[in-house]
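Weekly sync notes, structure subgroup
Attendees: PM, AL, DS (notes)

Item 1: joint prediction request from the bench team. They want all four components modeled as one assembly rather than separately. Inputs as received:
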Amino acid sequence: MATGRTHRPATRSRGIPEATVARLPLYLRALTALSERSVPTVSSEELAAAAGVNSAKLRKDFSYLGSYGTRGVGYDVEYLVYQISRELGLTQDWPVVIVGIGNLGAALANYGGFASRGFRVAALIDADPSMAGRPVAGIPVQHTDDLEAIIEENGVSIGVIATPAGAAQQVCDRLVAAGVTSILNFAPTVLSVPDGVDVRKVDLSIELQILAFHEQRKAGEEAPGEAGGDITPPAAPPAAAVRRRGEGTEQGPDGDMPAVMPA
Amino acid sequence: MATGRTHRPATRSRGIPEATVARLPLYLRALTALSERSVPTVSSEELAAAAGVNSAKLRKDFSYLGSYGTRGVGYDVEYLVYQISRELGLTQDWPVVIVGIGNLGAALANYGGFASRGFRVAALIDADPSMAGRPVAGIPVQHTDDLEAIIEENGVSIGVIATPAGAAQQVCDRLVAAGVTSILNFAPTVLSVPDGVDVRKVDLSIELQILAFHEQRKAGEEAPGEAGGDITPPAAPPAAAVRRRGEGTEQGPDGDMPAVMPA
DNA sequence: GTTTGTGAAATGATTCACAGCG
DNA sequence: CGCTGTGAATCATTTCACAAAC
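Output from the run, pasted for the record:
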């Protein structure tokens, strides 16, 4: 998932699969809810349902962490909350900075889900001098000029980039130079970072595009909600003819694909 | 990635792998940038670099769409933009509604990346009556009471949920009942939906947690930035002893894991 | 010569199914 | 009994490496 470099099996790694790591927060959320309702134990079946996965996967995931369940009974909720939190590093306090306090940055600053896990918004940073000092979510915005000092003073190793795309790489470079080694990128750009720095990206429009793909499939080939497509004009094909894979055998049912674009 | 149900190979499917679909928007973004700079062709190598993947993967991905390149030359940028857009369904106009106009909802409404692809924010909906009529991103907010009518009038099939967690399932149910078949969920809850409805989720705190996991690994076992962990008290272990997988052979270097929790 | 397109191999993730433990 | 933990089987994805096309 890291954007730029190779990314060894999992940063040195004792070997928890990435796919499992990505689900641990899900389990943790479900467990926290159970914990609040004072439920003492859960079966893999129940917990899996609450987390939206199937129970075999959940059990296999937990097996990478160790044997924390009791056969015939299930898992001790409190204990598992602790184990997963520890595995994810949430028993520590992680100061984060958010750079770019526009709509999205402000939303992030206000987002309750951070504080409730081990994250603390240590600073908000924006390039606009007129924002400096203005409080957002109770935290005064600071100017980009002080970025390096802020990182250092607060011992920040995780940075969130919520700037426009154009500024993202530059901000990223400064964060990295100042010592940040994990970046959550909301700007729609590919960031390049040196080895050892992790980048995860959240791209709102990408998620919608994936939905649109599936939506289109569902709809067969009818118009979705509004006027049919006249958006991009077909564009000239290259010299070569356009083929399709899979000769005569086993082809999809719907006869879409107009074979060759009209020049 | 859909949250609730089984999800056949890929909704009826002519067979583009999910992993490939998830990368198409990335390629599209890179191609759009090239197009704006009037670059006529790209090699798989160049495009892969711009999209942050490796070239073998990119070529394999494109091979699922058809043969759109020219050997010895590369890909025609405009043509490929069109083909990918079409494959993703972006040559159509997709009206979307955003429900929950808090900080995040407002950020989404203002997000430029939607309109530039085939998405159009058809309506903003919020449960707070005092927001009704107030324009956000130039679009007047409407009240939840009218949700069904709005969906129907606009032929909306994609909904974005940006409400608090507690309201999400209820909003989801109403969206689905009104005809929405794709949902992008920003609320930190597992939504359950009937078969045939796709859900994708974006959870800001989950991404941070995954970063924290890797960050912890990098740091060895030193304190990260601030005070060390005294957050969750260890919690009682269940009856059983705690094992670890992998007997004597091949074990990770760092001797963490205090074997058994102090009761 | 260059660069695509793709079988085949390698790796990774999920699911099955059941032995073993409480 | 019920439920976990996990090898083995299956399925998906990535990578390799090279023949075919320009």
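Discussion: Residues 17-20, 54, 56-57, 60, 70-73, 245 of chain A lie near DNA strand C (CB under 10 Å from a C1').
Action: AL to compare against the crosslinking data before next sync.
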